[in-house]
Amino acid sequence: MISRIFEEAYEQVSFFSNPKLGLNAIIVIHSTKRGPALGGCRFKSYNSPNDALDDVLKLSKAMTLKAAAAELPLGGGKAVIIKKEGEFNREAIFKGFGEFVNRLNGHYITAEDLGTTADDMEIIGQVTPFVRGKASSKGDPSPYTAQGVFLSIHNNLDFFRDLGYLKGSTPSISIQGIGAVGSKVAELALKEGYRVYVSDIDKEKLDAFKKQHPGVEIVPSEAIFEQETDIFCPCAIGGVVNPNTLSKIQSRIIIGGANNQLSGEECYELLRDKRILYGPDFIVNAGGLIKVASENMDNAEAWTQKMIAKIPERVRLIFEDHLSKGIPTERVALQIAMKNLG
Ligand code: NAD
Predict the structure, then answer these.
(1) Does one domain contain both 35 and 120?
(2) The whole model's pTM is what?
(3) Choosing from 61, 66, 78, 134, which is the catalytic residue?
(4) Atom of ligand 1 nearest to the CA of 281
(5) 78 catalytic per annotation
(6) Which of 181, 224, 262, 284 best tests ligand 1's pocket when mutated (most atoms within 8 Å of CB)?
(7) Among 121, 137, 153, which residue terminates a domain?
(8) 83 is a domain residue
(9) How far apart are alpha carbons 134 and 92 in whole angstroms?
(10) Residues 6+ positions from 162 with CB-CB distance below 8 Å
């Protein structure tokens, strides 16, 4: 693992331990080439510290690419706090973590991620200024993520129509997962008159959503892939686009909010053979990061909207490049990120 850190040129990997608090954390700064490394903090159990290191290394690199592709003045970083079995003092853990963050003098800025909340960020904010998404700053990024996802579809409808990728005059979309992001995408699509199909493993959530929005169609979890819609929109978990699901997916366009949607490069050929346009996740779901990046700006909302408006344009350019040169869309997206990294 250490040789990988050197070979892949991670700028800084820091291990922190405070046995009194039962706190073990890793902060990785992958790159500060475009600015301070901003990335969320995961609070999660791992099978081993090596697994935690592997996770945070990968995640920090992905943040560099996402920020660079979105033209943000930010580098990439990420943190994990390794969750222990049994009781713990949450406030003390996050204060202790905040002190670690503070020692990095702003080269790393933390934020919410899996297992952490806006209230945890508030606690971290008591000991360091290098935190975003505090409860008091009302900085929920998910509506902005959803906006970027939906615009990537909606602003490109004419492009998809010209390609013959839309089945009828009314666009249709199947959304996997109606959590913070998926529910907002569904609402935006309903507002624009789409036929909307949703699935989620949480039945109560689905029922509540249907009650609020009678216009949506509920689809059983596994059937979502086989839905005859124009767009498949993964907004739940990673790896949902894989050889197995690709044999079922009926949509010609895949654009969604979930991170790491492709199981791996084995999907490239299958996507090409089925003539499916896949919107690379780290391009499409950058709206939330843009929102978090804007938090301390004077003209935050205007800047956020300007940057989010570029997402659908970028997605279309990626599709055009893919169609003309035959390069997988994810590779085109990586080229954009690398170019912006100089
Ligand atoms: P969330 O936890 O609010 O919602 C996820 C939803 O997916 C839940 O309702 C859950 O029940 C459902 N789900 C889980 N497994 C499922 C399955 N197999 N089939 C159907 N539904 C399933 O999370 P979120 O904030 O909406 O994020 C969704 C995805 O988008 C995640 O992959 C996240 O990493 C990514 N993402 C989110 C943001 C953001 O701003 N929240 C930003 C970038 C990327």
Answers:
(1) yes
(2) 0.92
(3) 78
(4) 44
(5) yes
(6) 181
(7) 137
(8) yes
(9) 17
(10) none
